[in-house]
Amino acid sequence: MIDSLSIKDRVGIRTLGRTALDKERQQREIEINFDRFERMLAQYLLTQRDRFALMRDGEVIGFFDTASEAGLAGAARFEDRIYSIQKVTDEPVEFGIYAHAIH
């Protein structure tokens, strides 16, 4: 069973230098991606355990071996920097700087 975690404990997103409207859009993106990710987690665990999903608009863009790789891919693909990174695990995740960047 997956522990009940706050979104900030499971999602990474960069928000430096953003307007209030951008931050609202980022928060919506996080919520949409988190909801979709949680619904699909059991399936992802079968083949992608311990990898990192780069997500946008509720869809997985790709799976990566590290959060850094996923972040670099997201930054290269999405100029607006609106995306999220989810670790494919059924254990609680602490993203450190990524988790605190949404504030």
What is the number of helices? Answer: 4
How far apart are the first and last residues' alpha carbons, in Å? 28 Å
Write the H/E string, N to C.
HEHEEHEH
Number of domains: 1
The oligomeric state is: single chain
Mean pLDDT: 79
Uncertain residue ranges: 1-16, 99-103
Instruction: Compute the CA-based radius of gyration.
Output: 12 Å
Pairing-aware structural class of the strands and helices? alpha+beta
Shape: globular
Biggest β-sheet strands, sense, barrel? 4 strands, antiparallel
Q: Strands across the major sheet, in which order?
A: 1-4-2-3
Tally of strands: 4
Helix content: 40-55%
Strand coverage percent: 15-25%
Write up this protein.
With about 100 residues, this protein is of the alpha+beta class. The protein is built from four helices and four strands. The protein has one domain (about 5-100). The N and C termini lie far apart (about 30 Å).
Briefly characterize the structure:
This protein has 103 residues and is α+β, with helices and mostly antiparallel strands.
Question: Which SSEs are present, and which pair or pack?
Answer:
Layout: H1 7-10, E1 11-12, H2 20-48, E2 52-56, E3 59-64, H3 67-77, E4 84-87, H4 97-100
Antiparallel strand pairs: 1-4, 2-3, 2-4
Question: Can you tag this structure with a few keywords?
Answer:
disordered N terminus; alpha+beta; 103 residues
